[in-house]
Amino acid sequence: ASSHDSAANGLKIQQSMHNSNYDIVKQASYTSSSGQVLSDDIQGFVARVQYTNGATAQNTFRMYTMLFPT
Questions:
Q1: Phi/psi class of residue 24: alpha, beta or left (left: φ > 0; alpha: ψ in -120 to 50)?
Q2: Closest to 45 in 3D by CA, of 24, 28, 64
Q3: What angle do CA 62, 29, 12 make, to 5 degrees?
Q4: Is 9 in contact with 21 (CB distance < 8 Å)?
Q5: What gap in Å lies between CA 4 and CA 69, rounded to an integer?
Q6: Which end of the chain is more exposed for a tag (fewer CB within 10 A), N or C?
Q7: What is the pTM of this model?
Q8: Diameter of the chain by CA atoms?
Q9: What angle do CA 3, 38, 4 make, to 5 degrees?
């Protein structure tokens, strides 16, 4: 949950095979009025989530991540 929109393509799932270069990236713009769910199949050994704020400072920010084995 976020009180304001992200930057353009500000929500990212980044994956790496070696924990150095994060070449596998799925991205989207987060819109606070609609919420956002971004999911991806895990292809790398390491995954991280990155959020970049838009132009307006946040009043509220909560991010949840879950990993489900296939």
A1: beta
A2: 24
A3: 70
A4: no
A5: 32
A6: C
A7: 0.81
A8: 38
A9: 15
Per-residue model confidence (pLDDT) at position 66: 86
- What's the pLDDT score for residue 7? 94
Contacts of 10 (CB under 8 A, 6+ apart): 27, 29, 30, 51, 52, 53, 54
Q: What pLDDT is stored for residue 70 in this prediction?
A: 65
Q: Do 35 and 28 form a contact (C-beta atoms < 8 A)?
A: no
Name the one residue in this structure whose structure tokens are 């606070």. Answer: 32
Given a cut of 50, the residues of the chain with pLDDT beneath it are: none
Q: Is 26 exposed, middle or buried (0-12, 13-18, 19+ CB in 10 A)?
A: middle
SS3 52: strand
User: Which pLDDT score, from 0 to 100, does residue 10 have?
Assistant: 92
Residue with tokens 């989207």: 28
State CA 33 to chain mean position distance.
17
Question: What pLDDT does 25 receive?
Answer: 95
